[in-house]
Amino acid sequence: MRTFLLSLVIIALLAAPAFAEDTELGDGRWFTLYTSENKVLLRTGIRIQVGDRFLDSDNRFYHVYKVDTERLRAWAREVDREGARSVSPVQGLPGADNYKIAVYHTHSGESYLPSDGVDSTDKEQGGVYKVGRQLSSRLEKQERVDVIHCQDTFFPYSGSYRRSRVAALNLVEGGDLDAIFDLHRDAAPPEEYYRVVEDMQLTQVMIVLGTQNPVHQVNEEFAWQLKETGDSMYPGLVKGIFYAQGDYNQDLHPRALLLEVGAHTNSRQQAEIGARAFADVVYVTLYGSLPEDTETEKEIKENPQLQPTADPPSGSKGGVLKGLLTLVGLLGLGGIAFLFLSVGSWQGVKDTVSHFFRVEFRDVVSAIPWHKFHPRYLIRQLKSMRLGGGAPEFFKRIRDWWQQLLKPRNRL
After folding, report:
1. What digits encode the pLDDT tens for the residues 32-56?
2. Residue 357: predicted pLDDT
3. DSSP designation for 291
4. Which of 161, 188, 198, 208 is the most exposed, fewest CB within 10 Å of its CB?
5. Helical (H) or strand (E) element with 43
6. In the predicted model, is pLDDT for residue 107 greater than 90?
7. How far apart are alpha carbons 295 and 198 in whole angstroms?
8. Cβ distance 179 to 222 under 8 Å?
9. 233/107 Cα distance (integer angstroms)
C-alpha cells in the first residue's frame, strides 16, 4: 500500500506540468472575472475555472463559483480569508542567505505590442526577456546578489511547460537558489495593468500560484509575503495573487512563482519599470531593507532612458483625423458663407448647389473615360507594350499610353 501511494505521488508530480498548458488561453484573448454584483474584478489570459481564487490589490479574497467558457466570463464571490495566508511585511526571510535568484521564461515569445510590434513570436526571444533583464539587473545592483537569467527558449507554445521544467530543474539543482521566477506577460486590455505608482508610470505585477502543486501552501506563503511587502513599499504595484489550477513547475522549489508583468497591450517600457520596482520588493522580502541611494524613483528620474512611455492623454488620440475633419468643416462653412454673400439669400445658395450637382458635376463625371479603367482594357494595353529598345523606349511607351488614357471618349 505504501509503495502504491508513493507511485501515485510520483505520477502526479510528473503529470502536473501538463495541467498548466490548459490553464492559459495563449492567443491574445482574455477572461473577464466579475464580482457577484457584476463589477469587473479581473481580466486575464489565464483560463478561469470554478474553484479558482483571487486575492485583489486591496487584499479582498474571492472564490470563483460560475464560469461561461464560450463567452470567456466568470463570477466570483468575496469570501473570508480563512485558510489563506495572512502575513506581515517582512524584511529578510530565514534561510534566504545564498543571495542567488533565477529567472526564466516558459512562454518565450511573449511580447508587448506597442513597443515590440508584435504580441508574440514563435522563433525568437520575445519582449519578456528584456523585462526579465531589467528585473535581474535591478537585483544584481544590490549587494552580493547573483541572478541567473536563463536565455533558453521553449518553443512551441504547446508543451512549453514540459520543456521549461528541464531548464528550471537544472537551475534549482545548480545550487542554493533563494527563489526562482517564471516571468510572463498577461493578455488583457492596457488599462487592466497600467498604473501610476509613486509617480512612476508602470504596469502592475500579478503573482500566479499553481494549486495543482501538492505542496503549494509553501509557495503560497512566499507569494503573500511578497504581496504584503509590496503593499508597504509601492502600494498598487502588486495586482494580486491568482490561484490557478495548474502546477507551473512550482513544485521544484518552495519559493517558485509565476509573474505576470503587464499585458500584451502595454508598452514594454512600462513593464520594465514595473519589473524593476518589483525587484526591490523581492530584495527586501528575501534579504532586508534597500540602501537609500538605490531607490527606484531616484534612478528613474536621473536616467531618461528608464522613464516610461506614458499612455497618450485622451485629448491627443486621433489628433490628425480630428484636425482634418475640422479643416473640412471650416472650408465647408466658408464656402456656404461666400455663396450667401454672392447670391444674397438662402434660396439662392440652395439653387446654386442644386444646379452644380445636376449639371456641372454630372458633365465633369461623364467626361471621364471610365472604360479605360476597366481591368480588361488595362491588361490589353500592357500586353501591347514590348520591351524592345531598352528602358528608355519602354518608359516612352508608358508615357504615351498614359496620355492616350487621359483623352476623353468620343460620345454621340
Report:
1. 999 999 999 999 999 999 999 999 9
2. 66
3. P
4. 198
5. strand 40-44
6. yes
7. 11
8. yes
9. 29
Alpha helices in 145-287 (DSSP H): 160-173, 216-233, 268-287
The 8-class DSSP code of residue 150 comes to -
Q: Pairing mode, if any, of strands 61-68 and 53-55? A: antiparallel
Sign of the C-alpha dihedral, residues 63, 69, 70, 71? positive
Instruction: Decide which of 343 and 411 is more confident.
Output: 343
**CATH code assigned at 206:** 3.40.630.40
Residue 76 zone, left/alpha/beta (φ > 0; ψ -120 to 50; rest): beta
| 286 found inside a domain | yes
Stretch 110-119: mean pLDDT = 97
Residues paired with residue 68 on neighbouring β-strands, in sequence order: 73
| Cα–Cα distance for residue pair 204/148, rounded to 1 Å | 23
Count how many domains the chain has: 1
Report which DSSP code applies to 152.
-
Q: For residue 274, give the C-alpha cell.
A: 514595473
Which residue in 254, 162, 247 sits closest to 213, CA to CA?
A: 247
Give the phi and the psi of residue 232 in degrees, each rounded to 5. Answer: -80, -30
Radius of gyration of the chain (CA): 31
Tell me, yes or no, whether 374 lies in a domain: no
Strands 31-35 and 73-79: parallel
Let me know if 220 is exposed, middle or buried by CB neighbors in 10 A (0-12, 13-18, 19+).
buried
More confident residue, 321 or 178: 178
Single pTM value for the model:
0.70
CA dihedral 290, 293, 296, 302 (to 10 degrees): -170
Range of the domain at 160: 17-309
Q: Which residues pair with 241 in a beta bridge?
A: 55, 207
SS3 245: coil
Helix segments in 141-267, DSSP class H: 160-173, 216-233
Residue 139 is assigned to a structural domain of this protein: yes
User: What would the pLDDT profile of 349-384 be if each residue is shown by its tens digit?
Assistant: 677 767 666 655 655 555 566 666 667 666 766 666
The grid coordinates of residue 313 equal 492623454
Residue 117: which region, alpha, beta or left (left: phi > 0; alpha: psi -120 to 50)? left
Picking from 50, 46, 52, the residue whose alpha carbon sits closest to that of residue 22 is: 46
79 backbone dihedrals φ, ψ, rounded to 5°:
-130, 165
Whole-Å CA distances, 35 to 32, 41, 53, 114, 239: 10, 6, 12, 30, 16
**Nearest in space to 27 (alpha carbons), one of 2, 47, 54:** 47
Asked if 107 and 118 count as a contact pair (C-beta separation under 8 A), the reply is no
Residue 406 forms part of a structural domain = no
